[in-house]
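Task: complex structure prediction.
Instruction: return structure tokens for all chains below.
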Amino acid sequence: MITVDLLDVSVIVAVLAIVIVIGLRGYGLSRSMTGFFLANRELGAVTLAFSLMATYFSAASFLGGGGATYTYNLGFGAWLTAWHVIGVVLMWILVAERLFKYASKTNIMSVPDFIEHRYQSRAAKAVAAVVMMFLFTLYLTSVYKGGAIIIATVFNTSFEVGLVALALPTLVYVALGGLRAAALNNLVLGSLMLLAAFLTFGLVMSAVGGPIRGIEELRSMTINGMSGDMWLKFDGAGPPSAMKAGVVPQLIMSVTFSISVAQIALPSLLMQFYAAKDARVISRGRILGPVLVAAYAMAVFSLGAFCHLILDPTLSQGEVAKLMKDVDWVIPRTVGLLAPSGLRGLILAAPVAASISTLAVTLLVLSAALTRDVVRLAKPNASERTLMLLARASLIAFAVISLLLTLVQTGIIVDIVAAAFGTIFVCFLGPVTIGLYWKGATRTGAIASMISGLVVGLSWHVLLYKATNVHSVIPALLVALPTFFIVSLLTKRPPREVLELLG
Amino acid sequence: MMEIDPLITVGYAISIVMLLVGVLYGAYKARRDKR
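Output:
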């Protein structure tokens, strides 16, 4: 499918080796809970901004995100980019500073910690921790899958071996080095992802003669029995079921919104703001953070449509139709055709890097949820040493559980990410993001919002998503947010001294 | 002549405008915080 040589393989092996070396360096600084989960609260602006970008973008952003417009019209790429930029700007403007200040005043370490303190409720904390553990474990399966298929292809081995090759180095560095190692690695891996994004954009655009020429060529093509013009119409190309029902625009808007704006309430991102060294870090990150996300999104998310010009002449009609159903292979195959030896390895290392960086921080969040939030609730007197041991052990346990779940998963990466990912956003948008501003928010409102968001988000995805072509985040938000406001208005607020911390 | 659906163009335009808003607001806040 993709021909790689020794140099390409060496580049990917080098990336995996670098992450382990960085992890070992972080070990000495990660022997306390604050050191392990929050890098001793010493992250600088550049590290934090890159780490957030690398955490947010998993392999799905490169594979599913990059290949999506092979099936969808360019509107998908345009709006996926737009919602991502809106999400990252709102996250840095509305959430970063407030959350950092709150964390500085209260010594909280995790998002459930914030919920416990903000709402003065252990029950709300427990619900938050359980919701997070459940959804992030599901989400990790897709993160694993993206990186593993690339490793399996490059090393010409089975998917299972690819999974282990991805999981082992990640586990070694994150279990030893905690957030310090994860954030430093994310700086390296995030830089690699950006470089690969620009290289891929450059290769594709030079192959098609630039975006304007490419669009003109696309229009004159016939793709899978359709005019290429359909890729330039917002109600044009899309999945066959949505085209038949005439709901391509609705599908595009609901899917792109759901997988992009999650940034403003995703615990794996929000927790990293606690690790900022000081307020100046937030101030500088506010400029750099949006630039990184926007640059990556603009380079990657619209490439799929242009890949028709490169790939289709080399494929049969049946192969094009097959690729349009499973777009994850569009970018790797295009890179396989266009990039020279070595560069090809560097670009293919990007989805692996993206998987590793997301995997590492998500495992830390899961470990924090269990150790900080659940075990400490049950055993408040547990020693720091016991908790640290449990933190590293639970991290490995979560990695193994999600790895086993990955082996029984099928389907397009971007869809799986969207289900768990979007639901996490729905569950935490009210209690955390709105709760940072609205003093009227109460613990009962927060609990009701998390539970209703979880139930509606997952059940809609399973039962109604395919029939309605409306992403589950939309109905889940329409239930969880009014629930949050109405229940909060009807129940008792936390004490005034807590609310004063909100500013 | 290239004709792209305006709703697609709007998506790209919003990306650029929002990025500018984010960066300019960030720069303004950073300057104010410095004082």
